[in-house]
Amino acid sequence: MAEYKDTLNLPNTSFPMKASLATREPEVLADWQAKKIYEKIRNARAGSKHFILHDGPPYANGHLHCGHALNKILKDIIIKSKSLSGYDAPFVPGWDCHGLPIELNVEKKIGRVGDKVSAREFRAKCREYAASQIDIQRDEFQRLGVFGDWYNPYVTMDFRYEANIVRALGMMIKNGHLQQGFKPVHWCIDCGSALAEAEVDYDEKTSPSIDVAFFAVNPEEFIQLFKKNSVIKPVSLPIWTTTPWTLPANEAVCLNPAIDYSLVDTDDSYLIVATELVESTMARYGVSQYTILSSAKGKVFESLKLKHPFYNRVVPVVLGEHVTTESGTGSVHTAPAHGPDDYLVGQTYNLPLINPVKANGCFADDVELFAGLSVLKANETILGVLAEKGVLLAKENIRHSYPHCWRHKSPMIF
């Protein structure tokens, strides 16, 4: 008797019962490449209307991850759908070959540029490393089934590409679109490089929290703004900061033009503090006996002169909307070289833009009192100078959110 299965009308196919994708996918890709499928698609659409997708390149470092796969598969879907719709849709992949990740990986192998490794040798090794990563990623992208001109990509380390960058930059300069100057940036001392905003992490850090008195050059000018005539004590604007190392670069003290500031009479001086912050400020100074004599808007103090806390330098009072009464004293120490708000205020008032800190995170050799000191280790020395000058009103350590390098997890500076 015949088997029941022989009585059934079952399909007969050469397809294997098991997919065995790990084995068969490379065979399919090899078959596509041998038959030059991508080239045939291009030839079939030659002369048709073009559709060009500019590939924002991946970075030539490491194996592909899910983000790479999502990016390239979506682009591949678009390109193939446009080809099916009759367009001539080439795809030229590319790679970004410049940046710290490549340099850091090369450093791990041969060390930093210095006595043992020349800059020329280091750059050559970076090129070799980037090329090896391109080979890895090219194979992995093709394993995803992405069609493209994989052996004629654009790479940013190509000398022709770099030359065109210089040409384009030259045109921008020639046409007057480029302005040369200095601006504060996020700086990682360990990287020896500026970092983009996306490369900055915010972690908890312990920092000194200090209040510093900026004494008036002409106390009478300040007192008169409060409708007072006699000056029997020194007058100062106290500032609050968690970055004492920026004080050598101070060029101004900033007030908010719309905030009310009070003239506070204490045992040994007059303090000018934002009215909303008088109570918390006096508590921080340990002053229980004080009198609020009068108040005035911040705008009236513009351009009055103050003494730098430890340098023989006069700094102006300036105004800025970024000053708030959320914390501190309502007066902000302003160093245009060390912060974006400070920089913008400095541009408005044409303040000197002097950066006393070198790329290695140390004060320059000509910085009075602190030459050669690491800025992240100089705080105690600076606090000592402030105390000696009699301008340190309060100090404590606080835990707060602070920018860190995403690679080294180390505190950054501006």
UniProtKB/TrEMBL annotation:
<dbReference type="InterPro" id="IPR002300">
    <property type="entry name" value="aa-tRNA-synth_Ia"/>
</dbReference>
<comment type="similarity">
    <text>Belongs to the class-I aminoacyl-tRNA synthetase family. IleS type 1 subfamily.</text>
</comment>
<dbReference type="GO" id="GO:0002161">
    <property type="term" value="F:aminoacyl-tRNA deacylase activity"/>
</dbReference>
<keyword id="KW-0067">ATP-binding</keyword>
<dbReference type="GO" id="GO:0006428">
    <property type="term" value="P:isoleucyl-tRNA aminoacylation"/>
</dbReference>
<keyword id="KW-0648">Protein biosynthesis</keyword>
<dbReference type="InterPro" id="IPR050081">
    <property type="entry name" value="Ile-tRNA_ligase"/>
</dbReference>
<dbReference type="GO" id="GO:0005524">
    <property type="term" value="F:ATP binding"/>
</dbReference>
<dbReference type="InterPro" id="IPR002301">
    <property type="entry name" value="Ile-tRNA-ligase"/>
</dbReference>
<dbReference type="InterPro" id="IPR014729">
    <property type="entry name" value="Rossmann-like_a/b/a_fold"/>
</dbReference>
<dbReference type="Pfam" id="PF00133">
    <property type="entry name" value="tRNA-synt_1"/>
</dbReference>
<keyword id="KW-0030">Aminoacyl-tRNA synthetase</keyword>
<dbReference type="InterPro" id="IPR001412">
    <property type="entry name" value="aa-tRNA-synth_I_CS"/>
</dbReference>
<keyword id="KW-0547">Nucleotide-binding</keyword>
<keyword id="KW-0436">Ligase</keyword>
<dbReference type="GO" id="GO:0005829">
    <property type="term" value="C:cytosol"/>
</dbReference>
<dbReference type="GO" id="GO:0004822">
    <property type="term" value="F:isoleucine-tRNA ligase activity"/>
</dbReference>
<dbReference type="InterPro" id="IPR025709">
    <property type="entry name" value="Leu_tRNA-synth_edit"/>
</dbReference>
<dbReference type="Pfam" id="PF13603">
    <property type="entry name" value="tRNA-synt_1_2"/>
</dbReference>
<feature type="domain" description="Aminoacyl-tRNA synthetase class Ia">
    <location>
        <begin position="28"/>
        <end position="216"/>
    </location>
</feature>
<keyword id="KW-0963">Cytoplasm</keyword>
<dbReference type="InterPro" id="IPR009008">
    <property type="entry name" value="Val/Leu/Ile-tRNA-synth_edit"/>
</dbReference>
<protein>
    <recommendedName>
        <fullName>isoleucine--tRNA ligase</fullName>
        <ecNumber>6.1.1.5</ecNumber>
    </recommendedName>
</protein>
<comment type="function">
    <text>Catalyzes the attachment of isoleucine to tRNA(Ile). As IleRS can inadvertently accommodate and process structurally similar amino acids such as valine, to avoid such errors it has two additional distinct tRNA(Ile)-dependent editing activities. One activity is designated as 'pretransfer' editing and involves the hydrolysis of activated Val-AMP. The other activity is designated 'posttransfer' editing and involves deacylation of mischarged Val-tRNA(Ile).</text>
</comment>
<feature type="domain" description="Leucyl-tRNA synthetase editing">
    <location>
        <begin position="287"/>
        <end position="359"/>
    </location>
</feature>
